[in-house]
Amino acid sequence: MISSDRTIADIMRLAPVVPVIVADDVEHAVPLAQALVAGGLRALEVTLRTPVALDAIRAMKQVDGAVVGAGTVTNQEDLAAVIEAGAEFVVSPGLTEPLVKAAARERVPFLPGIANAGDIMRGLDLGLDHFKFFPAEASGGLPALKALAAPFHQCRFCPTGGIGLNNAAEWLAFEPVLCVGGSWVAPRGEPDSVKIEAMAREAAGLAA
User: Fold this and answer.
1) What pLDDT is recorded for position 4?
2) In this structure, how many other beta carbons lie within 10 angstroms of the beta carbon of residue 147?
3) Helix axes 97-106, 76-85, angle to 10 degrees
4) What are the CA-CA distances from residue 203 to residues 40, 46, 55, 123, 164 (Å)?
5) pLDDT at 1 (0 to 100)
6) Fewest Cβ atoms nearer than 10 Å: which of 17, 165, 176, 194?
7) Which residues, other chains included, contact 105 with Cβ-Cβ below 8 Å and sequence gap of 6+?
8) Within 10 Å of residue 94's Cβ, how many Cβ atoms?
């Protein structure tokens, strides 16, 4: 079901911000994705927090230029469902050995969440070196990530949680951060395409 040979590193480098999308109505999926892509944000993370999430992934996959992934994947059943829906990458709030191994078997780009050194070490043992730092602000913010990244120089990160336009640039200025995850560019409800495209363009411009 995976449509390309992109790695998780490739996907993290598509744009400085990965929109974190909570889809409440599948009818909103395509116009939202079109506006985000038009503004320069191609990697779209649809979280498994609503009943229509899988249908939203399927719909957004039809948008030219969109690279659609699934977030809030916490177990192998979720993984199977999002792969069947066509997700091109998978994001988890945490890191477990069964999920890492299942993602490897399925050859799907996988970004697990980490919040401490033990998480990173488990990930490295399982062959991973790209991680979601989550919840970023609640876990100590940028000072905490700088402290964590120091002994793990080979690792790269996508901080998510509490990040908005007001602080995204500061996170992105830290070299091990390839991108940030943010919901501010994809507000819930009926999408205002003009406003969302403008917010996406502003976010895309945060790249160093």
Assistant:
1) 63
2) 11
3) 30
4) 8, 18, 26, 29, 9
5) 45
6) 194
7) none
8) 13
Q: What share of the chain in percent tops pLDDT 90?
A: 97
Strands (DSSP E) found in the chain: 17-21, 43-47, 67-71, 90-91, 110-111, 113-114, 130-133, 156-159, 180-182
Is the CB of residue 63 less than 8 Å from the CB of residue 30? Answer: yes
Structure tokens belonging to residue 26: 């599948």
Tens digit of pLDDT for each residue in 130-185? 999 999 999 999 999 999 999 999 999 999 999 999 999 999 999 999 999 999 99
* Cβ atoms within 10 Å, residue 150: 9
| Residues assigned a catalytic role | 45, 132
Q: What share of the chain is helix, strand, coil (3-state, %, to 5)?
A: 40, 15, 45
